[in-house]
TrEMBL record:
This is Major facilitator superfamily (MFS) profile domain-containing protein. Its main location: membrane. The lineage of its organism: Bacteria, Pseudomonadati, Pseudomonadota, Alphaproteobacteria, Sphingomonadales. It comes from the Bacteria. One of its GO terms (molecular function) is transmembrane transporter activity. Keywords: Membrane, Transmembrane, Transmembrane helix, Transport. The keyword Membrane applies. PROSITE patterns: MFS. It is a multi-pass membrane protein. It comes from Novosphingobium fuchskuhlense. It is found in: Membrane. One of its GO terms (cellular component) is membrane. SUPFAM superfamilies: MFS general substrate transporter. Residues 24-425 form the Major facilitator superfamily (MFS) profile domain.
């Protein structure tokens, strides 16, 4: 595979055909799909792993989220620094190969330590994926079209979650939890080869008014980011949104299994179709809304994100509080779309608030915040709270319900940050890229 720093002739994306733009967007979406599937298969087989390895809720939470997050977060900044300076296409292909191979190693592990090390490897690989994808897409679509394009990109989240829940749940039920990891590892290597063969490194910043040949230092990027008040609020909104929505989703399959005495396949069959149908539906609806001329104003976008997040918080609370499986399922059909609605617009807003040579780093900063909340605070916090609320017999449905009910209202906190971003987002976007 080519070296990360290898040069490629600029693709002239300012004059690229619509077919080329959409082909690149589709391939980037597939990369994100595999990213999410490889990450969230763990939540589907969480209870099987806990029982097989004789772990507490806190112990399996560390194996699940913290082990991946420590390396995802620590490697995100240096890999994004590389993406802002060198060949993003090559970095993306190498990253996909690494996390796919390490996902396969999760399935080949025979003990706690082997699974822990493989999970860490998944985190290292995934750290180079999303920032590279975001930056590449922004050089194929102009600023006004980026919210729509990155929302299409984020269709990978519901499709990947469906694969990691429904398909992986069925495989795990039939063949055991290790088989679920083996099935998901191979496609990523094939996609990496496709990227190397068919996609060229685009000319950086070719569709923006403000252009710079200078390479900003890490500290310059951090100072500029902090000076963009709306960027800070958008990053916090998406970060807390990840704590709220994806934090709950870590334990929803386990919660359903314990509360309603169903197996891993049945739990995956409940959650998987919701991810697929409502996740895709929410993403497509978002893309359609943001593609309308009236939504070129970024203030309308953050107001929309805040409103949807606040409304979706209510059925999320109901899904955890109720003891009725039918009501819980209906509530999940209303709650889960809310955890997809914000992803694409938040990515796009962050990219439009960053100059071209800071985009991968802005993406990495946003992902750092989101993944500290989502992969460290949420699973570890819920796991420890569940152990705390548990009786002498150990964690059960009641202890997990109590822990999740503490997390469920945090969607209102995320909505607050989106509303605050509206105050300065127009001025901040002009300052970053020269136009709204």
């Amino acid at each position: 595979m080519a070296a990360i720093g290898a040069t490629a002739a600029p693709a002239g994306e300012e004059n690229a055909s619509a077919a080329l733009r959409w082909y690149v967007l589709l391939v980037m979406m597939l990369a994100y799909t595999i990213n999410i599937a490889d990450r969230y298969v763990m939540s589907t087989v969480l209870e099987q792993i806990r029982l097989d390895l004789h772990l507490s809720d806190g112990g399996v939470a560390f194996l699940t989220g913290v082990s991946l997050a420590l390396f995802y977060v620590s490697m995100g900044i240096p890999l994004s620094w590389i993406a802002d300076r060198y060949n993003r296409r090559n970095l993306l292909a190498i990253s996909i190969t690494l996390w796919s191979v390490m996902t396969t190693m999760c399935g080949l592990s025979r003990g706690y330590m082997q699974l822990l090390l493989a999970r860490m490897g998944v985190g290292v690989g995934e750290a180079g994926g999303t920032p590279s994808c975001n930056s590449i897409i922004c050089d194929y679509f102009p600023a006004a079209r980026r919210p729509m394009a990155l929302t299409i990109f984020c269709l990978g989240a519901p499709i990947g979650a469906w694969i990691g829940a429904d398909m992986a749940g069925a495989v795990a039920h039939a063949y055991g939890w290790r088989a679920a990891f083996l099935v998901l590892g191979i496609p990523g290597v094939l996609l990496a080869l496709l990227i190397m063969a068919t996609i060229r490194e685009p000319k950086r910043g070719c569709l923006d008014v403000i252009k710079s040949e200078d390479d900003p230092t890490l500290m310059e990027t951090m100072r500029f980011c902090l000076s963009q008040k709306s960027a800070v609020h958008v990053m916090m909104g998406s970060g807390v949104g990840a704590l709220w929505g994806w934090g709950l989703m870590w334990f929803i399959p386990t919660f359903l299994q314990r509360t309603y005495q169903i197996d891993v396949g049945a739990a995956g069959a409940i959650v998987g179709p919701i991810h697929l149908v409502m996740g895709i539906g929410a993403s497509l609806l978002t893309a359609w809304i943001l593609g309308r001329p009236s939504y070129t104003d970024p203030r309308k976008i953050v107001y929309l994100l805040g409103a949807v997040t606040a409304v979706a918080t209510v059925p999320g609370i109901i899904a955890i509080y109720t003891h009725n499986l039918t009501l819980a399922t209906v509530s999940l059909w209303l709650f889960i779309p809310g955890i997809y609605f914000y992803i694409g617009p938040a990515f796009a807003l962050g990219q439009n608030l960053a100059p071209p040579k800071m985009r991968a780093m802005f993406s990495a900063i946003a992902l750092l915040i989101a993944n500290v909340f989502n992969l460290i605070v949420a699973p570890q916090g819920v796991g420890m709270l569940s152990d705390y609320f548990a009786g002498p017999a150990g964690p059960d449905a009641a202890s997990l319900r109590s822990a999740l009910l503490i997390l469920a209202p945090t969607g209102f906190w995320a909505a607050f940050h989106y509303f605050m971003a509206a105050k300065t987002i127009v001025e901040d976007q002009k300052r970053a890229i020269g136009h709204v």
